Task: inverse folding
């Protein structure tokens, strides 16, 4: 299975580089890399459409080089992918990689090459020390953990919680953030259970319930794990609210995995398609037109990261140093970038928006957040 | 016009030694620093690369090994629980789960990009397999908690399989790491060999370069300096024939050429001075021979002038004879004084008189070359303090230069002397209407060996004159404008004004009186032409005069007669005046105090003064008879005859 995954990833990468970069990049053009799973390629189409709409005729011609990843690729694969992108002529910046573990594995490559890396949906606090060329668009796991802790204690009024966490940089980081936040709010953590996609959720949930029955279950994992745990809890006759981190809000995988227990699910998002502002509405419209689907949080974050870098290159030129300085200046000597997901800057004043979404009827409804 | 007796050095020649030393130092510094840099460049990048490489590798291996140890302990606990088929007690479960929690903590990012590709894949796979193993062990523990031992055993097989996979991954990573280390060790070995060669070269160069430097310094600096030192010693001991070799056209070569030129000049000067000294000796003899007839002529003329009954024409003729004899004597005296100067004697000098003497000394040249000399140095000037001979030399040099300068122009040729007093200084200007001095030469005219006379000049006259002027507290400067003749100005601090020359108290009256009546005077001179008129003159003044032709005869006279005073010539046959005086001092010390000495040779007078003779009683021939009589009278005073 692994070989198949790696092979597929490699094939997709080669094809993507040939199709997207080969036709549009030259030695003198500016390239922005995009290292994400294939389904996010729609963000490129939307970005290209937006570039055309804005008629950004000034500045260098920007092409977006896509290198497809597969969720759960080993760190070694992410390092190779980063190396490939860094070697593309004219490469100025890269959006990616997919998740904290992948972004952390790739960050040293970009920092050594002097290429800006913007991670749209990575939350590991370890990224803060990844290097001067790495910028994190999403709030880190301590902020997200505090947000979940607030929701669990204040909104759900829970006093006992069990945490299931993906045993990687994302899950372990969010687990630590949540545990800290819950401790500060007087919520007892009954259990911490490491999980992955192949875990025997029935056994793990049963054993955990034997250790103690929580008021709420928190999942620092992805959609399959969060949905499965919600379903097993329901099947065991202990229906409890299941609050998941941002990694879980991928519909419809989440609702399918949860089955009848989907409505018990809450998930953190950085943006929701029902956002009322005009930029969000326009983005939703373009995305729907391009893909026939509603965009999700990670789509909007990726789109913002791409457009932010396109604007930076148009503003300061193809110099990597200048682009990095442009990002640093946001919120300081430059106004924050106004994107679909909100006002973006990377200084201490940055306040990323967090939303708690409730899965209702196969869709999501915001219950907390702007 | 030529300037300087040593040819100027060609451009760059005076810097060759510095260039050699600089080049040698540069080569030494460049070689040693270059080899050091090469050594550093050979080792440092490899050491830095190794350190940078080992950091992530050791971190990843260390973190993985720690996790593996924790998980291995948990696997053992889980295996025990499964084997015992007893539900794990709360404590063992808590301990096992705590170990798993510790293993799953993330405190830093995994630096996979910093390790070689082969190792990276194995390490990341081991890490991910280990994560799965932790999850499976967690499930085994959960199953034992739930009492599902059959499922737990089945899950344990998955655990064992993953455990083996982790170990395999780790072994592969270790293998890749070992290969990588071996490759790096080979690179380090190569670097070490390279460094050994470089260090060897460094040692060799460190030995060779100082030796080469010493060799060059010895050959190009120490040896020439030693030769120069030895040559200076020889010059110091009076050997002016020494010449230094000029093997190289560098600074020391230039110095050697200067030295050779200097010794040549000194040699020429020494020869000139030798000739000068010989001339002085000759002149001294001549002066003695000439002064005696001059003395005779003066005495005869003076004696005859004292006779009554002379006509006005006869008297005028005799006055003319007397005057010309006086002038000839004065000229001879000045000449001798210049060519045979004695030890410096600093005293107040009548600068106007001194300048006039020098003009007199050079008057012959003025006449021959049709040079009109205008001496406007007035007698009213303050006197200056210094040694007369040295001051005279200044003006002789300046006037000689002026004469040489105006010789090159057509008549009228003019040389002038001006004097003035200003702010306590006496200034004397010597000017001419010659071609003047070029601006280029004017700047260094007072430097030694700079001459405008070509081979005829030594280039030392003005240099020496300025030194002499400065020794006297003054200075010598060139103050001529371009296109005009030369104008040199020498100044001296003014001494307190001095009165006029003291005239002998009873000079003019003596001839008409019997001023020496009652005295017995012994006249000792080998020259009959002097002895006779002197005797007659003193007799006319009332003295009883006896005479002797030399010292021995005079001693005999003294044994026979009582003498009040002695007039004694110094240069005589058989026994000269000095020997005679010594005998008188011994036999008649009281009479010795009343001896007047006469000399036709100023050098002899000087030597006599330097000896036992009383300087105040030495009179130079041709002596003025009235001065002689006055002197005798002062000597004898009112004393009764001895």
Result:
């Amino acid at each position: 299975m692994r070989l198949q995954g790696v092979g597929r990833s490699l094939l997709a990468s080669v094809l993507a580089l040939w199709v997207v970069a080969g036709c549009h990049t030259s030695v003198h053009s500016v390239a922005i890399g995009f290292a994400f799973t294939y389904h996010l390629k729609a963000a490129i189409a939307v970005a290209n459409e937006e570039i055309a709409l804005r008629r950004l005729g000034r500045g260098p011609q920007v092409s977006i080089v896509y290198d497809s990843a597969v969720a759960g690729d080993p760190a070694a694969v992410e390092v190779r992918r980063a190396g490939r992108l860094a070697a593309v002529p004219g490469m100025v910046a890269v959006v990616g990689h997919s998740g904290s573990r992948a972004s952390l594995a790739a960050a040293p490559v970009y920092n050594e090459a002097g290429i800006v890396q913007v991670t749209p949906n990575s939350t590991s606090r370890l990224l803060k020390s990844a290097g001067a060329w790495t910028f994190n668009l999403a709030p880190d796991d301590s902020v997200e953990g505090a947000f979940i802790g607030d929701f669990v204690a204040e909104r759900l009024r829970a006093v006992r919680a069990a945490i299931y966490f993906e045993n990687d940089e994302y899950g372990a980081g969010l687990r630590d953030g949540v545990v800290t936040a819950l401790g500060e709010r007087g919520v007892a953590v009954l259990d911490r259970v490491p999980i992955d996609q192949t875990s025997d959720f029935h056994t793990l949930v049963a054993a955990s319930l034997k250790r103690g029955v929580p008021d709420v279950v928190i999942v620092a994992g992805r959609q399959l794990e969060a949905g499965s745990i919600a379903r097993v809890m329901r099947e065991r006759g202990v229906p409890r609210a299941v609050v998941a981190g941002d990694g879980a809000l991928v519909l419809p995988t989440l609702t399918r995995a949860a089955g009848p227990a989907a409505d018990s699910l809450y998930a953190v998002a950085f943006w929701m398609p029902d956002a009322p502002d005009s930029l969000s509405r326009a983005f939703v419209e373009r995305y729907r037109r391009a893909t026939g689907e509603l965009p999700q949080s990670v789509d909007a974050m990726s789109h913002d990261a791409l457009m932010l870098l396109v604007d930076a290159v148009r503003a300061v030129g193809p110099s990597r140093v200048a682009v990095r300085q442009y990002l640093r200046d946001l919120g300081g000597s430059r106004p924050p970038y106004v994107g679909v997901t909100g006002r973006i800057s990377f200084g201490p004043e940055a306040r990323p928006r967090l939303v708690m979404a409730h899965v209702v009827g196969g869709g999501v409804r915001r219950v907390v957040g702007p | 016009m030529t300037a300087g007796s040593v040819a100027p050095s060609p451009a760059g020649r005076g810097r060759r030694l510095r260039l050699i030393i600089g080049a040698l130092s540069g080569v030494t510094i460049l070689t040693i620093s270059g080899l050091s840099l090469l050594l550093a460049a050979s080792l440092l990048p490899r050491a830095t690369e190794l350190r940078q490489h080992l950091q992530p590798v050791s971190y990843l291996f260390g973190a993985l090994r720690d996790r593996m140890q924790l998980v291995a302990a948990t696997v053992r606990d889980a295996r025990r629980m499964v084997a015992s088929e007893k539900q794990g007690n709360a404590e063992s479960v808590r301990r096992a789960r705590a170990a798993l929690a510790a293993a799953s903590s993330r405190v830093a990012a995994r630096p996979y990009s910093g390790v070689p590709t082969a190792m990276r894949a194995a390490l990341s796979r081991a890490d991910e397999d280990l994560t799965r193993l932790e999850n499976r062990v967690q499930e085994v523990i959960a199953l034992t908690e739930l009492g599902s031992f059959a499922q737990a055993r089945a899950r344990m097989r998955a655990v064992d399989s993953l455990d083996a996979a982790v170990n395999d991954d780790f072994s592969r990573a270790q293998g890749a790491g070992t290969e990588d280390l071996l490759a790096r060790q080979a690179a380090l070995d190569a670097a070490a060999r390279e460094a050994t060669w470089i260090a060897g070269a460094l040692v060799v160069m460190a030995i060779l370069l100082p030796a080469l430097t010493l060799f060059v310094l010895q050959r190009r600096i120490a040896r020439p300096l030693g030769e120069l030192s030895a040559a200076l010693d020889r010059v110091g001991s009076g050997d002016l024939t020494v010449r230094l070799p000029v093997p190289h056209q560098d600074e020391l070569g230039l110095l050697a050429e200067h030295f050779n030129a200097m010794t040549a000049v000194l040699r020429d000067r020494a020869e000139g001075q030798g000739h000068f000294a010989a001339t002085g000796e000759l002149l001294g003899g001549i002066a003695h021979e000439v002064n005696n007839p001059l003395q005779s002529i003066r005495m005869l003329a003076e004696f005859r002038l004292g006779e009554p009954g002379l006509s006005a024409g006869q008297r005028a003729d005799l006055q003319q004879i007397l005057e010309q004899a006086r002038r000839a004597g004065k000229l001879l005296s000045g000449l001798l004084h210049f060519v045979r100067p004695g030890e410096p004697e600093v005293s107040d000098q009548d600068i106007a008189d001194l300048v006039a003497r020098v003009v007199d000394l050079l008057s012959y040249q003025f006449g021959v070359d049709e040079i009109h000399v205008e001496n406007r140095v007035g007698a009213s000037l303050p006197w200056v303090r210094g040694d007369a001979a040295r001051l005279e030399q200044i003006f002789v040099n300046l006037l000689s230069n002026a004469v040489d300068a105006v010789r090159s122009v057509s008549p009228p040729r003019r040389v002038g002397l001006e004097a003035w007093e200003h702010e306590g200084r006496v200034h004397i200007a010597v000017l001419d209407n010659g071609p003047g001095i070029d601006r280029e030469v004017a700047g260094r005219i007072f430097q030694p060996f700079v001459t405008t006379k070509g081979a005829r000049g030594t280039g030392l006259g003005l240099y020496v004159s300025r030194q002499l002027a400065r020794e006297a507290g003054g200075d010598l400067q060139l103050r001529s404008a371009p296109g005009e003749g030369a104008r040199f100005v020498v100044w001296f601090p003014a001494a307190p004004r001095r009165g006029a020359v003291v005239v002998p108290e009873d000079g003019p009256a003596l001839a008409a009186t019997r001023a020496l009546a009652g005295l017995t005077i012994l006249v000792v001179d080998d020259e009959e032409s002097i002895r006779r008129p002197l005797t007659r003159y003193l007799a006319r003044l009332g003295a009883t005069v006896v005479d002797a032709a030399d010292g021995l005869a005079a001693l005999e006279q003294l044994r026979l007669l009582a003498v009040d005073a002695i007039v004694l010539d110094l240069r005589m046959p058989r026994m000269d005046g000095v020997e005679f005086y010594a005998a008188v001092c011994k036999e008649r010390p009281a009479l010795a105090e009343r001896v007047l000495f006469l000399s036709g040779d100023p050098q002899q007078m000087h030597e006599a003064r330097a000896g036992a003779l009383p300087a105040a009683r030495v009179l130079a021939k041709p002596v003025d008879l009235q001065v002689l009589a006055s002197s005798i009278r002062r000597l004898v005073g009112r004393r009764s005859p001895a």
In short: The radius of gyration of chain B is 56 Å.
